[in-house]
Amino acid sequence: MAFDLTSLFGSDDLLSQDGASFPVTGLAENEVIGIYFSAHWCPPCRGFTPVLVAKYNEIVAEKKKFDIVFVSSDSDQNAFDEYFKEMPWKALRYSYREQKNTLSTKYEVRGIPTLVLINPKTGEKVSDEGRNIISEHGVEAFPFTEEAISGAAARKLQQKSQKFADNFGKGFEAFGKEATIGTTGEKVSMEEICSKQYVALAFGGEQNYEKFVLPILNSIREPIWEKHGEKSFEIVHVPWEGSGDDKSLIKQVAFPTISKDAVDETMLKDIFGDIHSPAVVLVSGDGKTVVTDDVARHIYMTKESAFPWTDATIKEYEAEKVRMKERVANAMADGFKGLVTDKRDFLLKNGGENEKIENLANSDIVGIYFSAHWCPPCRMFTPELAKVYNDCKAQGKKFEVIFISADKDNNAYAEYFKEQPWLALPYKERDLMEAVQQAYDITGYPTLVLLDSTGKVLDKNGRSKVQGGAEAFPWGLI
User: Name one GO molecular function term (predicted).
Assistant: First the structure.
């Protein structure tokens, strides 16, 4: 039985740009349709709509079977009317508010603008990433299947690789003969940089680069070198968007930085497109291949674990996260074995010593403390927890705590751990930390999960329990 599009839109009556009624069934002739959730009052929507209009016109001009239905989140009819004038496609009538809510729920719309791509023959979702797909690839990725998107991305990378090779195929001399490590002043030759298998060009200058991306870039080189060898990877900071004279930023860069004078923005934009910091482009050290367009988000989300951040390594990283979560969740309730790795059977103590994980069995209650240096409520609660912990120790009560960090870099972790008198997982084992968080469904900080001596969960809201202080230990839990 054919899918009934009227069941999706609530009637057979959509609005055309000329104000006439358009039958919903007329959409069935398309190969793909987009449902565009947007609003006149939303600045990101107003920024994306002209882009979508241009891409839509290109797709239609190529005679592709594609259409869009605008589903408004505007506050009144006038705003809807004004906004819809900018759009060449169809719209769900503004008065159909209930159906708008039904569509938002069905396709799990969490914010706007959102472009959901669906198959009009089945009503099934093709992708909820239509905004990114069409912005990035346009008609080249039609009909927006995974295969078509991969093909479009591959062709784009091939084009960029050719331009990259034309300018950098004989080495990175286009960036000068050497670079300087900002934190130390050490000189690194371009010849050495070219000897690396992969080079990440980090376009830095925007505030989010300094705040979020740079600390992670500073932290990933050595773990990658340790696992894959020093010839595997290098990062080059490319001063961008007016950051060339920002000496305070350069002094924070713990990897090679090229001179602003060596940055030919016109050439780089011709190769890589319209670059906005924070962007990180992964290229081959031989100057012949653009490996990945922009890996900044992948690096931010996966750190060094998904290196070199290709589709294959990202998929394997995601699969391993699921496997690790399951392993940790099962092993934590078996004498805390979820904290043990092939190379480590201990936890760190504040003084630099180690504590065997098997010794946790000697505690009556063990708290898993999820916290971070950047989190104000965490910084307020940590001294309170430290007092309870120290009082318990002084009174001979068997209470232990393990710090699981959500800090963004090792320096913040180390600084914060100085304030904590208990145990911790090493910061470099961030994948394990994340798996422990997932195993206990941690969604906010600070969170204190209280376990018994075997690893069984006693209370996931340990913060409220320990308010009773050491005198109330074990807080009615055992």
Answer: protein-disulfide reductase [NAD(P)H] activity
